[in-house]
């Protein structure tokens, strides 16, 4: 009883907030209800953004054997507050030759699309801020608008670094949008619905009470999850795919001419995009808000969602602290020669899994399909470079 | 409520269209065209055709607008200064508008009230596509796949020549 109450506590709170409006016309209730949802999403994710900005620096510091921020507040926990104040009181520099309107609108559009994409993700049982039949499609439709915003930032700045950075960013976003969408296709096919709630509902249930029916436990699901995660890294311009930015080559890419709060808006939008894509990965492959084993179902659903989300975000930071950057041509080759054929294979593998009865036989058959294509691809794409043992002429 | 929304969207869409036709800088015109696309998508939403609205945003803003913007960027230098009024274009546009208006006013279907239909869900579109229209769908899929492979081959050929 108390578990169910705790699970739905936010819905109860919303009902309580709406109760004074009992006699009001329908459209007013609708508007207020949407406003509550919006402020909920914004509140949660702005807090998460503040937390992750300091945690990322802390974790990176730990990985690089240093302290990270530790001056503001206990353990440097008030660092985001200091950063926020610093960003707010910085001078807002707009280049004299910039296209003022486009330059001004770009950060707003970037942030708006990132926030909109967060709206369709189910954060818990009955906790989707914006329920829409084609939620997955909405997510990608909104996400594709980001490219235009990035272009506006690059073009509006009237600066060669900005423009080149924007071109790089758009090139990799367009290329990886394809594998990103194609890897969600198997899930959509198996579930037979485009709504995130239906996809989460389809991953309910456990084998023997311990093995959850998440799509990541199937071979095609696991492979799709990995491909989706890599595409997500690229879409959010994170290391090792952060070529649109580069201090020594193109300064800060399309953000070169932005300062103060506009730069902070870009920064925030990047993190919001990261949250959104991780949230979608959790929804599609990691069972959404379902608990990993049946015995833990008494813990509220949103707790599980945010636990999985934090785990994915930690991997993002971990990857950033571990891997070197890739080159532009490497990113493109990887997208078109490896990711795309693999994504197509996963659709076939998911179909095989479905028509073999979704049991052990289907599991093995779909694994076989993926393995064959994977090994064939790796043989085809092998550049046959032989690395001889290194000889030192002067060092020894 | 709906008529208010209709008016607001109409004003935004039409002003976007006007800006797209009148602004001196080509990039500004292209970006104004995006406002028109958003307005059209909003109309689809208003009419309950959620899926079509989303596809409108996806295809027209995510692909067509980016394509237009890149084409302008890669093909011509900054064109500044007053382009003047293209009288020939204006006459053609007016003629097309007049023709459309005349046709719309002539039709009898204006008087027919639209029947109340249930909202077009993604599921229903999928069912229809997979049953009645499966052959056209397959043909379109084949054409698009061919285009995709063609694009890939074009890029690969270029690389081989460079060596």
Total domain modules of chain B? 2
Q: What name goes with the CATH superfamily of the largest domain in chain B?
A: NADH-ubiquinone/plastoquinone oxidoreductase chain 6, subunit NuoJ
| Unreliable residue runs of chain B | none
The number of strands of chain B is 0
Number of helices of chain B: 6
How large, in whole angstroms, is the Cα Rg of chain A? 23 Å
Strand composition percent of chain B:
under 5%
* Helix-strand sequence of chain B: HHHHHH
Helix tally of chain A equals: 14
Shape of chain A: globular
Report the major sheet of chain B.
none
User: How much is the radius of gyration of chain B in Å?
Assistant: 21 Å
- Please list the strands of the largest sheet of chain A in the order they lie side by side: 1-2
CA-to-CA gap between the ends of chain B?
64 Å
| Shape descriptor of chain B | globular
Biggest sheet of chain A, open or closed, and with what strands and sense? 2 strands, antiparallel
Strand segment count of chain A: 2
Gap between N and C termini of chain A: 74 Å
Into which percent range does the helicity of residues of chain A fall? Answer: 55-70%
Q: Average the pLDDT over all residues of chain A and give the rounded result.
A: 84
In short:
The complex is a heterodimer of chains A (396) and B (163). With 396 residues, chain A is mainly α.
